[in-house]
Each structure stands twice: as structure tokens, then as C-alpha cells.
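Narrative of activities, Objective 1.

The group set out to show that a structural description can be obtained from nothing but a protein's sequence at a throughput compatible with the screening campaign. Below is one input-output pair from the validation batch, recorded exactly as produced.
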Amino acid sequence: MDEEVFNIQIRKFLKNVGVTSQREIETAVRAAIDNGTLKGEETIQTKVTLSIESLGVHTEINGAIDLV
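Output recorded for this entry:
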């Protein structure tokens, strides 16, 4: 295994995850504020699941996003 290639590929994957996740969260929060589900001053509990079926990996990462 080429460690440099491996590291670069992981970084590319994580960049895609980060950009996509941010876009989805922003869209969902704005829609929830627009439809009255959120007021815009909450803390939103979050969970991301990382799954790599071929390696048997299943990890949950919990967090929170403050809107104010």
C-alpha cells in the first residue's frame, strides 16, 4: 500500500463528506426555519454514521450544532 496515495484518497473522501454534509444541513435548517419547525435559536443534535461494509466498520459520531 502506498501511504501517500492512501492518505490523499482519505482526504478527498472526507472533503466530499464535509462539503456534502454542510450543504445538506444548511438546506434542512433553512427549510425548517422557513416552515416554522425551527425558530433559529435551537441546538440541533446530530449523528453521522460511517460505514465501510467490506471492512466491517460501523461507527456513529454524535454532536450538536448551535444556531445562535
